[in-house]
Amino acid sequence: MSDLKKKYGLFTAICMVVGIVIGSGVFFKAQDILKVTEGNMLQGIIAWLVGGIVMLFCVLAFSVMAQKYEKVNGIVDYAEMTMGKKYAYFIGWFLTFLYYPTMTSVLSWVCARYTLTFLCSANPDIALHIGADAGGTVFGPECMTLACFYLVLSFAINALSPKIAGKVQVSTTVIKLIPLALMAVVGTIYGFTHPAEGSDMSVIVFNFSHEVKSWDLLFPAVVATAFAYEGWIVATSINAELKNSKRNLPIALVVGALIIIAVYVFYFIGVSGGASAETLITNGATVAFSNVFGSVFGNILNLFVAISCLGTLNGLMLGCSRGLYSIAARGYGPKPHIFNQVDKETNMPVNSSVVAALLTAFWLLYFYYSQLAPKSWFGIFTFDSSELPIVTTYALYIPIFVAFMVKAKDVHPVKRFLLPSLAIIGSVFMVYAAVYAHGIKPYMLAAAEGKFNCPVIFYLIIFAIILFAGIFFMDKKKKK
Hints:
- The protein has 480 residues and is mostly helical.
- The chain has helices at 10-21, 25-36, 41-66, 74-83, 85-122, 124-130, 141-160, 162-193, 201-206, 218-229, 245-274, 277-283, 286-293, 295-320, 323-328, 336-339, 350-371, 388-407, 413-448, 455-479.
- The longest helix has 38 residues, at 85-122.
């Protein structure tokens, strides 16, 4: 086995944290948040803030761990140092076979969706040919085909040239901030000077006595923000490749998190000034671009959105390709002597990357044929793969935080007790919100119609099957 070389600096790490997180969720989930809050902008802003605070709590707790632990895969390292090798193994197994590939697959589809949205807006004939909806959005086989192409492209870049992958991450991070910054500033000004019919920007943004329709809508809205905020933990997967990682990784995590929260909240406020809530719910946030900047320049910003999504996909594939390697490097999992190999030419775990690409392709099919296709292939075993695997990570963080408080006797009390405690509170809140949004609420709605529907249970069954497979390979390693 070869060692991964130190090849990334602080600026690249910050760009990776910001670049992995920002890029799709803020565009993709803004529409969903408006739907679940029934168009209540104030409640949407609160959801973005709550989701960001939960992320920041966890970032602060993990930044302390990053100063103590350094191996080949951040979150797996933290689990091993606090909970032991078995727990770390199952964390790595979950990340490899469920978390990374589901996230990456959804991102490939989102990239394709916004690329086709740009093309349809630029050429109405294309929209007519491929059957785009009123907002120029495409959900059909054309979108799936392009998503598969993006998966292959991202895999090739990360597996064959990590230096190019790093440069792509930095450049796309800069590009993706352009539409967000413009909409945050210009959209807010536009909203005050050209208020959308039926809305008042001063009430929406600044008057916190504005009526909140129902506080139980906050739970599904916060869970929706989880997808937009998730990805920062992926940056910890390169801590063995980061120069002076014990110093640079905590800085990158905290600075990146603060940038992300600010960008998301101000972008959402800007979007609320560019179109009415009803229009945004129906046609998506990109409609605000055309209203504020005009059809031509607004569509150019749509292209920037597509590019920013590609940057996020590139960052996630970077973490995804190292998933099985992080397990094999510890001597666990299937054929560890094969998957712990690092290519001498590219200094990348190519065998691990190939498996990651195959897993991501499977979960892309699941995402489409369980949630988007006219007819589901998976029957009742249908869950939102863009949210539930993410919330699972928050549940898995809790034992790590508790164990860290018990074992880290050489750490300052604030870092040892206060930060992990805040992270535990945030994680518990996120788990409850997910159970309510994907379990309790759909069950009650279905029960009222004499049916049964509880996506959380279906997800937990699949989750248990995947972990059971992990037990088999761990025992097999011990017998050998």
